[in-house]
Amino acid sequence: MSYEITKAVKDEDVKFKSPDPAFYNALGYDGMQELMYKFYDRIYDSDIAHFFPQDHEEFEEVKKKNTKFFIQICGGPSIYDEEMKGKDLDQYMIDIHKDFSIYLKSRDEWLGTFRTVLEELEIEQKIKDDFWDYLDKFSKLTVNKWPKESAYIN
Questions:
Q1: Domain count of the fold of the chain
Q2: What is the pLDDT of residues 107-154, one digit of tens each?
């Protein structure tokens, strides 16, 4: 798969499903943690690093918390729920992004960084494709700053 970043459209009704648990099963807890830490270490050096704490210790806490989210959403143990006390995971992740101005370019940078770590991952392509589908669709829901339309276009 080319890991295409599909276009996000304002007010689009995005349908997505959680990743197939096969992704977690292929990596296990330690493999998921390694994947997510690689991803966040690259994010820390990316064009969207400003969305994350610049203090190293604070960033490590965000990395751990977000890794728990991905472990759980991919079918691993309910370690994120323990911290979130029953909140809807998907809605919570959408809501916390409202504190930031997330543009289409920010989404592209986030997905591009994920694409890089997924391409390095040596598991069955079908499983990676399913995970990518989740990332691509779900990330559309985090975009909250859209380009202004021209007043001169009908």
A1: 1
A2: 999 999 999 999 999 999 999 999 999 999 999 998 988 887 655 654
